[in-house]
Amino acid sequence: MTGPLENLDAVVNGLLGEVDTIASIEELDAREPALAGRRSPLAALQKSLGGLDPDARRDAGARLQAARARVEAAIGDCRRRLAAAERDRLLEADRLDLGDVVTSTVPDTLRAGHPGLVARTQAELEDVFVAMGFRVAEGPEVESDWYNFEALNIPPAHPARGMWDTFYVDLGEPETVVLRTHTSPTQVHLMETAVRDGSLPIHSVMPGRCYRRDTPDARHLAAFHQVEGLVVDRGITFADLAGVIETFTRAYFGTDVETRLRPSYFPFTEPSAEFEITCQICHGTGCRTCSHTGWIELGGCGMLDPAVLEAVGIDPDEWSGFAFGFGIDRCAQMRHEIADMRALTENDARFLEQFS
Ligand code: DAH
Questions:
Q1: Best of 161, 182, 224, 232 to mutate for ligand 1, by most ligand atoms within 8 A of CB?
Q2: What is the value of pTM for the model shown?
Q3: 302 lines ligand 1 (CB under 6 A)
Q4: Architecture of domain 118-355
């Protein structure tokens, strides 16, 4: 066929091919006039029909109309396809991944929390002592100077105060108030109560949080936990104290742990000792955690100084006893072989989840 429409099929195929390559609605909008509108080759062909006779023009017009309809249909398909793809893209971007939600965002109702390692260690230690016949008591974390120091035979300006770098609470006159530097003041509360109630003897342990102005390191935290122990009874000897220490360390750490007592000094006990266990990080060979000694100090202990009994109105000729105090965090560290104690306070889920 000759005449103005002799290449119509090729033109239409060219236009359809072009429509196929369009990749976005924006591109389609930009190119539509050149494909099917006033600037398209079909519009130019339309103009060229003017010179045909009426019959030929009608036929050619109909063919051209059909060709335009094909191109417009292809453009319509293309627009729908692109719009659907765009909708999918937006939906995908907005999609809530329920898998993610369950495992990370709303776990509280699905995965209950659990006590931290220190709380768990405290409960385990309490169990050990309860099994040995002790009661569990607690005391305040904010203490007057009298309870934290003086009643424990540490008068103001006593050089032993240097053993405890103290946080002071500024409440003004008349008393000096401190964050307790150890759980030993709870001994004093307990003895006072026992005197008032006439409920001697005492066999108690007193766990709780303590504070010291220490720079945290592998073995120290500024806020830490201790268990205090106190026995006030008749005829108590150092052998009873040593037996209690040996029994509880074996019960808690296992029978292959070695314990040793070393002579020491505390103002509230006489004689005094420090007790240590073999470092559980290096099993005695020496490492950074134990400063290469092979031993880790758990706490102090000793026979109650008569001055402490007298300060609370207990007759030291009738009653005697012993006391001890040691770190809960330190026990957790040794039992679970945690090289650096600061891991206990860093709230790293990878650490915490190991103790769930
Ligand atoms: N309170 C001491 C401290 O924190 C430890 C201690 C030593 C407690 C001897 C005692 C004791 O009850 O008798 O360093």
A1: 182
A2: 0.69
A3: yes
A4: 2-Layer Sandwich (3.30)
